[in-house]
Structures are given as C-alpha cells and as structure tokens.
Amino acid sequence: MPAVNAVARMTLRQSRRGAVGWLAGFTGLTLLYISSYKSVAQAKSAAVNDYPESLKKALNLQDFTSPVGYLNATAFGIPLLLLTTVLVITMATSALAADEESGAMELILSYPLSRANLVLGRMAAMVSMLIGVAVVLTIVTLAAARPVGLSIGVADVLAATFTWLLLACCLGSLALLASAAFGRRSTTTAVAGGAAVVAYLAASFLPLVDGLGWLRLLSPYNWFIAGNPLGKRLNLGYVALLLGTSLVATYLAELVLDRRDINT
Amino acid sequence: MPDAEPPIRLRGLSKSFGELRAVDGLDLEVNPGEIFGFLGPNGAGKSTTIRMLLDLRRPTSGEVRILGQDPRAAGPELRRRIGYMPGEFIIYDRQSVDDALTGLASLRGGVPRRNIIDLANRLDLNLRRTVRELSKGNRQKVGLVQAFMHEPELLILDEPTEGLDPLLRREFGEMLQDVRASGRTVFLSSHVLSEVQETADRVGMIRAGRLIAVDGVETLRTRAVRRVEIHFNEPVSAAQFGSVAHLTDVTVADSVLRAHLTGDADDLVKAAARFSVHTLLVEEPDLEDVFLALYRVDAHARG
Question: What are phi and psi of B84, to 5 degrees?
Fold first, then answer.
C-alpha cells in the first residue's frame, strides 16, 4: 500500500524531533531505576513491608527484593505505564485531531489516499515509534542490569518489552479511535486521558472493592501487569487480547473517520 | 479520451449544519476547458461547496459528479486527477518548502521534479525557505505549486489569489490560461470580483447558499450599470434623450449630459450623433456593481 507507506514516512519525518526527546525520556527513566537497584530495593522494601497486602497488590509491589519484582515495581511499573500513556495519547492526538483542527487534514485528504489509508499510515508511524522505544527499553535494561548485579534473562526482558509494545499499541489505537471520533485536540486528550485513568483504576484499585474483581479483566493495563512477562514470559492469552484490541480499535478509527465530515 | 460528462456537475446540492442551510439546492455545470469563477461574499457557502466536491464534507441531499464520477465512491483514484488549493493552506511548517512539496508529491506517488522547480521559479518561490517563516503570500504560492504540480485535469482553487501581489496575480492568470489552453478545467472561488473578471470565462454567484446567477463574464458586464458622460459642442436638453433605450437618470447641465446606461449602447450613440459631440465617456462597469445589483434584486424578490 504505497499511500499508507507515504503517510507513515511523512509522519515519522515530521515527528523526529519529538521522538528523540521521548527516547531520551524512556532511557532516563529506565536507567534511573535500574542504577538505584541496590539502594532502593532495600530501603523501599523496608518501607513497603508495612503496607497492607491489598495495597501492595494494587501497586504491584509484592516482591521488591527479587530482580523481577524490583523491575515490575519500578522500571516496568507505574512510571513506565504513565509515560507510555502520555506518549501514545500525545501521538494519537496529533495524528488526526490536531491536523483536522488546524486544517492540515483537509489538504492531505484532497490527495489520492483514502481516509483508511490516512488512519493506517498514522498508526503505522506510531507503531514504528513504539518499536523504537521497545528496542531502547530492551537494550538499556540489559545493559544497565548487569553492572548493578540485577540478574535478569534476555528472554525475560524481551518478553516484557514485547508485551509492553503490544500494550502501547493497544492504548495508542484506542486513543487514535478517540482522535478519529472527536477530531478536536482537547476533547481527544480529555476523553483518552480519562479513559486511561479509569482503565488503570480497573487494573489496580477498583478490583479491591467486593464484587468488582471482574473489572480487572477489561483493562489493557491488567493484560500487561497480570501476565507478568518479566517473570513468566509471554502469556498468549493476554498477547492475543492486546493485539486483537489494537486491530479492532484501528479498524473502528478508519470507519469512524470515513463516515463523517472533516470539520476544519 | 475526454469525458462525455462535464468536469463538474451539481444537481440540487444542499448541505445543512443543524438548522443552518449552508448550501441550498445548487445546480451547476462547469464545461471542459473553461475557467469557472465561483463568486460570493465570505460565508456564502463557497468553501462548503468546494469541500463537497472533494468528499471532505458529504451533501445532505443532491448529487455531485466530478469528471463523471461520484467523489465518495470514486475515492483516491478520482482525486489523483484533481489539484486542490484550500482556502487556508495549512501544512506542517517546521520543514523547508522543498521538503513540504516533495512530501506532498510522494503522496501522489511522485511528481516530476522539473514541474516543482518550474512552478516555483514562475511564482518566484524560494524552495529553501522554512514554511513557518513564509508570509501569507508566499504560503499561497506553496499552495498553488502543490495544486498545479501534477498537471491535473481539474483544478479546484479556493480563494487562490488571496495575499498575492498584483504582479503574481498576473502570473497566476497566465498559469490559468495555460491550463485552459491545454484543455483542462479550472474552478476557482473568490470574493473579489475584479480578479474573476480578468480570468474567468463564466461566473456563478452564490449568496446565502443559493446560486443567484450563472453567466458569461461578458454578459454580466452588459448587465452592469455604466455611468455615461457626453460633452456636446451645442446645447441639448434632457427631453431629447428621454426615449433612448437603456438610458436612465438623465441630467443635462452646461451642454454636458450625465446618465446611467444599463445595457446596449447603440441607441444612445445614435441619439447623440444628431448633435456635435466633443467628448464621450463611458465608465467600465465594475462587476462589483453587477453583483450588488443582483443581490439587491434577489433580496427584494425575497422580501
């Protein structure tokens, strides 16, 4: 599909400045946590030990001293999920809604490409960027772990970064769906951000409420966290859920954008 | 082989936004190889109509046929044959003009580099500048280059000369003549009548979403009210010109006749020839006047 390819390349070319910043951010976050493994793991686990068991479970802090437990609680924990969420919402918003609001989309859609081509091209650019982040996460984690005595297998890290990649694609495609549906920067950010908070709560605190345990099953964050790819490698069920949701949401974004007026 | 159908054909085209009827029952045909001027004040529905031609907005009712095809069904393959310049040319601006145009060309699957360079030279556009540094006029030039660069069969230009200086307007006019000479079609909108007067073959006038007139530029010109002033070498009276066809508001002072002429000048010339004429002044009609006259008529008819 040459049109999709052209859109994706154009999008990547135009976002290379931002990409460098994001890659540096992910690198910094990972380095920060891994390099402080020795000091933090002991200090924090002492502090965390007094937390109620349910809170530890909600925050994914049960086992702080083992390498896997430490990474799940830090470099692959809440800070990474937060940064990832902000990244994909930012990318998805500028992919469609920002262009529609500014009027740039009007020009692009007067060219010989369909609206589905545009959505796919934007999604492809986002996935390429996320693959870049996944590669950086893998390399930085492996390179930084050894010197501080954090022993973790290559296959475990690969399983974690691959599952992370699918999670990011899943969240990104859902944000892209919002971007395609609303066509306004502020609405897209608000709705996608709000949904992310709800989804995170559904994977962490809400299941603590009696009778709401099932909510966990609906949250993409849970599909990443509960599979524990760092400790247990790939969970094919969760992988399928993340991948399937990404595909369905991207397809729905195409449909939604194709069915309405472009409002500049 | 040329299309049997006109490049643009609109039948009962309407578009509503909630209660507002932005475009109201437009019937219009643009002929192959002509330059069609789409005139109307801001907010008349010009851009909304144009966006429906490109499938950016979908009609509430009515039919659009572009180069014989339905824009929605024909999709990308149809837009390959169209060049479009939006009313507001917005593009990612942290890139050079060259990168912007090359990027757009790649969305068309490539355009001969020669075309881009020739057009940029013609419009005096510096390809090395960054888009965000460009003035409104220079930005318009980028918009024009991207619309013309693939030599489309149909050019749809929304207020193309906005912000261009007079010299470039003339160059733009020549670019349009070249397009026409090669048998291709131009549909351009404007709210400035003098521009269209210079370039277009036919003009459609839109107001409040309705097409109020479609005519050749020449016909519209003859409909115009022209101010006439005749200096005679001998005394004349207003009564002697009372029955001259198309002549109104006749006044005579110091053997100078002043009047308004609406239409053919033949009768007036013959009437004046009975006397010795020193000077004859007929003001070139302004399309603005035609336009306003039509609007007034229309507004009156609607009550």
Answer: -125, 135
Residue type for A95, please? A
Task: Quote the distance between the C-alpha of residue B5 and its chain's center.
Answer: 22
Show the tokens assigned to A208.
């603590």
Interior CA angle at A169 toward A165 and A175, to 5°?
Answer: 145
Check B89 against A107: CB less than 8 A apart: yes
Q: What is the CA radius of gyration of chain B?
A: 23
Distance CA A201, CA B93 (A): 39
Read off the tokens for B279: 């000077």
Q: How far apart are CA B62 and CA A166, in angstroms?
A: 45
H, E, C per residue of B246-274: CEEEEEEECCEEEEEEECCCHHHHHHHCC
For B27, the 3-state DSSP assignment is strand
Q: Do A112 and B108 count as a contact with CB atoms less than 8 A apart?
A: yes
What is the Cα–Cα distance from B128 to B2, expressed in whole angstroms? Answer: 38
Contacts across the A-B interface (CB distance below 8 Å): 71
Task: Give the pTM.
Answer: 0.87
Q: Is A10 on the interface with B (CB under 8 A)?
A: yes
Chain B residues inside the 8 Å CB shell of A110:
54, 56, 79, 82, 84, 86
What does DSSP assign to residue B130?
B
- Chain B interface mutation, best of A1, A5, A107, A108, highest count of B Cβ atoms under 10 Å: A107
One digit per residue, pLDDT tens: chain A, 264 residues?
789 999 999 999 999 999 999 999 999 999 999 998 887 767 766 777 777 877 777 777 667 778 898 899 889 999 999 999 999 999 999 999 999 999 999 999 999 999 999 999 999 999 999 999 999 999 999 999 999 989 899 999 999 999 999 999 999 999 999 999 999 999 999 999 999 999 999 998 888 888 888 999 999 999 999 999 999 989 999 999 999 999 999 999 999 999 999 998
Q: Tell me if B107 and A13 make a contact (CB, 8 A cut-off).
A: no
Distances from the Cα of A136 to the Cαs of A17, A80, A92, B36, B279, in angstroms?
17, 13, 21, 56, 86
Kindly provide the ipTM of the predicted complex, given to two decimals.
Answer: 0.87
